[in-house]
Amino acid sequence: MARAAARPRRIALDGALTLRTVAAAQGRIAAALAKGGRLRLDCAGLEEVDLAGAQLIVAALKTARTAGAPMEVAPPTSGALQRTLSRAGLVEAFESLCATGAASAETECA
């Protein structure tokens, strides 16, 4: 009997993802990646994202792709994360990771 695909483990990122909070968020993401399985970074509750926070999301996607770990980021196209990615010139890198990662490590930006 085939098992249903496991639901991704959800990491809710809410409030601020800034230089002051990025270390704690990075620890949560690293611990979840270490456990294996699908991971979903839920960015819907982010109200403030600075460059450190945007870099963390991009680095998490790169790490997941390199490790062959399936990761989703949602929603990537609105809110504080999108504004910071745009201001920092990281939209193209973010979208490239989503596009190339989806084929090799099931990275998705929903």
Describe this structure in words.
- The protein contains four helices and four strands.
- With 110 residues, it is an alpha/beta fold.
- Strands 1-2-3-4 form a four-stranded parallel sheet.
- Strand 2, helix 2 (51-67) and strand 3 form a beta-alpha-beta unit.
- Helix 2 packs parallel to helix 4.
- It is globular and about 35 Å long.
- It starts with 8 loop residues before the first strand and ends with a strand.
Number of strands: 4
Q: Summarize the helix and strand pattern as letters.
A: EHEHEHHE
Strand order of the largest sheet: 1-2-3-4
**Roughly how much helix do the residues carry, as a percent range?**
40-55%
**Which geometry do the CA atoms define?**
globular
* Percentage of residues in strands: 15-25%
Which structural class do the helices and strands define?
Answer: alpha/beta
How many strands, what sense, and barrel or not for the largest sheet? 4 strands, parallel
Helical stretch count? 4
**What is the CA-atom radius of gyration, in angstroms?**
13 Å
Distance between the termini: 29 Å
Low-confidence stretches: 101-105
Provide the residue-averaged pLDDT: 83
Write out key terms for the chains shown:
110 residues; 4-stranded parallel β-sheet; 24% strand
Give the secondary structure arrangement, pairings included.
Elements: E1 9-17, H1 22-35, E2 39-49, H2 51-67, E3 71-74, H3 79-88, H4 91-105, E4 108-109
Parallel strand pairs: 1-2, 2-3, 3-4
Helix pairs in contact: 1-2, 2-4
